[in-house]
Write a structure and sequence with these properties.
Elements: H1 2-6, H2 8-19, E1 22-27, E2 30-35, H3 38-47, H4 61-67, H5 75-85, H6 91-118, H7 131-148, E3 150-151, H8 159-168, H9 173-186, H10 190-193, H11 195-202, H12 207-216, H13 220-256, H14 261-268, E4 285-286
Parallel strand pairs: 3-4
Antiparallel strand pairs: 1-2
Helix pairs in contact: 6-7, 8-9, 9-13, 11-12, 13-14
Protein name: Cytochrome P450
GO molecular function: heme binding; iron ion binding; monooxygenase activity; oxidoreductase activity, acting on paired donors, with incorporation or reduction of molecular oxygen
InterPro entries: Cyt_P450, Cyt_P450_sf
């Protein structure tokens, strides 16, 4: 398949150039109606809530999470998830989060300046920077600080040495989570996902068979994605539990001051981004230092 040989982004860009912003794209035996028009994408995102994400080869909790996240969910579940998350993106919330976002951006700029000034020095030896990966680190840093009040320290380690430390040191949860997210996105492409995912795209009617074979005889691509998704799920659960433990004392204090305790308890039972218009304190906690 051309999409495996040259990559999905390149194929879509070529189709858009030759055929326009709406076209059919065949991935194996599955035909997708594809659009690159931003306004049409926005309209579809709000009005079309039926999405086919049954092609995953994951099973158990991982399969359940994939089928029920805000991207893949359908109908009423999608509307409920969107309603729950919408307050986090209100103007008031974003203004409150701005100092944390700026702090993460400043860390990225400082890293670029530091590496740029050392680039010409003999013995610098750190190799080229992957800007795409660094932007991913900044995104995760923003999510960690704004949503959970946790500093993932994503810019403290880079490159192969960072990967080795993430694998070897369990306490470096933030860095391990950064690499898990990166591995998931990397293995979403057919080119790097492995033979079982490619077989599932070519012959989707045999997907239950491919799922069994993928777990019995996993290749490198599937193993990488499976490990990364397990790490992401376990860390996200730990973050949510940690956030709730740190939030409930604040609820008790507010109740003692006469604040509406029922309303606060309702907010505490949900993940960080949707709980209120006021963001976590800018002095965020160190990366999962007190997560069980």
């Amino acid at each position: 398949m051309e999409i495996v040989r040259v990559g999905g982004a390149q194929v879509i860009a070529a189709r858009t150039r030759d055929l326009g912003p709406i076209f059919k794209l065949c991935i194996g035996r599955t035909v997708w109606v594809t659009t690159t028009d931003p306004e049409f994408i926005r309209l579809l995102g709000f009005r079309s809530t039926t999405r086919d994400f049954t092609r995953t080869l994951m099973r158990g909790d991982l399969r359940y999470v994939i089928h029920n996240d805000i991207v893949a969910s359908d109908d009423e579940l999608w509307r409920s998830l969107r309603s729950a998350w919408q307050p986090a993106f209100s103007s008031a919330s974003l203004r409150g989060y701005l100092p944390l976002m700026v702090k993460s951006a400043d860390e990225l700029v400082a890293l670029l300046l530091r590496r740029g000034s050392a680039g010409g020095e003999k013995g610098a030896g750190e190799g080229p920077l992957e800007l795409h990966a660094l932007l991913g680190c900044m995104t995760l840093q923003v999510v960690g600080s704004c949503a959970f009040g946790v500093d993932f320290r994503c810019f403290e380690l880079e490159g192969a040495a960072a990967q080795q430390q993430a694998d070897a040191a369990a306490e470096e949860e933030g860095m391990a989570l950064t690499h898990a997210c990166r591995d998931i996105f990397e293995t979403l492409t057919l080119k790097s996902a492995g033979r079982w995912v490619s077989a599932s795209a070519l012959l989707p009617e045999f997907r239950p068979v491919w799922r069994v074979l993928a777990h019995l005889f996993p290749d490198d691509g599937f193993t990488k994605q499976l490990k990364a998704r397990k790490k992401l799920l376990s860390t996200a659960r730990a973050l949510l539990n940690d956030w709730q433990r740190h939030s409930k004392p604040a609820v008790a204090a507010d109740v003692a001051d006469g604040t509406d305790g029922a309303a606060l308890e309702g907010r505490v039972s949900a993940p960080g981004p949707q709980v209120s218009a006021s963001p976590p304190d800018a002095n965020v906690r160190s990366a999962l230092s007190d997560v069980d």
